[in-house]
Amino acid sequence: MSVVDPPIAEKHAVWEDALALPFGAFLLSFGLFLLSEIGGVSGGLAGVAILGSYWTGFGFGVIFFVVNLPFYWLAVRRMGWAFTLKTLITVSLISLFTAVHGLYLDVSEIAPLYAVIFAGLVIGVGMLMVFRHGASAGGFGILAAYLQERHGIRAGYVQGALDLIVVIASLALVPLDILAYSIVGAVLLNLVLAINHRPGRYFG
Predict the structure, then answer these.
(1) In whole angstroms, how far apart are CA 69 and each of 66, 77, 109?
(2) Measuring CA to CA, which residue among 31, 87, 27 is closest to residue 60?
(3) How far apart are CA 32 and CA 54, in angstroms?
(4) Are 20 and 12 in contact (CB under 8 A)?
(5) SS3 for 43?
(6) What distance in Å separates the CA atoms of residue 126 and residue 121, rounded to the nearest whole number?
(7) Nearest by Cα to 123 from 100, 153, 94
(8) Is residue 9 a part of any domain in this protein?
(9) Helical pair 44-56 and 60-68, crossing angle rounded to 10 deg
(10) What dihedral angle (degrees, nearest 10) is formed by the CA atoms of 124, 127, 132, 137?
(11) What's the structural domain count of the chain?
């Protein structure tokens, strides 16, 4: 009886990372743009930044970039400089792209439920892209990626617990019907991560 050797995981080439990070950031930013346009909320620091934009009137991108700054210390200490720099690039691109979408798209007529379903799925796919290329979408994503990398705890479960905290905190700023829709989107996002991002299942 022969034993088949497991496939050897090969690192992504630099050019693959260079394309995947902006692609993932674009998808993430589009989902966040949809949520902010309907007055919804996301989980994680993105949700914190969305709520901050509602409360202060400042743009989401600026707040998102600023609230992520303290998490880079954890990223450097625990995940290394390469992960940290890739995450900084991803967060910067998300902050930029969320401002760009509104210049080219008018989604004022979009149905909120459709918006949150699409946003949840597209954010989940965007997070998968950046995770698989050695980065995260910043903030709680850094913590989720660290716990999965070091302790084998699924990123989707960690992100889901933190998302729930942010969604509960949004009760003061988001109407109940929109909040209920946002929870649907958060569940779909975390299902995408939990189903598709497990240690040992991804090679390359």
Answers:
(1) 6, 14, 35
(2) 31
(3) 13
(4) yes
(5) coil
(6) 9
(7) 94
(8) no
(9) 130
(10) -160
(11) 1
Whether the pTM exceeds 0.85: the reply is no
Q: Retrieve residue 178's tokens.
A: 């929109």
Domain assignment of residue 159, given as a range: 23-196
Tokens of 29: 């930013």
For residue 3, what pLDDT is reported?
43
pLDDT at residue 94 in the model: 95
Structural tokens at position 188: 């779909």
Tell me how far apart the terminal alpha carbons of the chain are, to the nearest angstrom. Answer: 28
pLDDT in tens, the chain (204 residues): 444 444 455 677 888 888 999 999 999 999 999 999 999 988 778 888 999 999 898 999 999 999 999 888 878 877 789 989 999 999 999 999 999 999 999 998 999 999 999 999 999 999 999 988 888 887 776 777 677 777 788 777 777 787 777 877 788 788 999 999 988 998 898 899 888 866 555 544
Q: Give me the half-sphere count of Cα atoms (radius 13 Å) on the Cβ side of residue 43.
A: 27
CB 170 within 8 A of CB 41: yes
Residue 43 lies in a domain: yes
Residue 114 lies in a domain: yes
Residue 1 lies in a domain: no
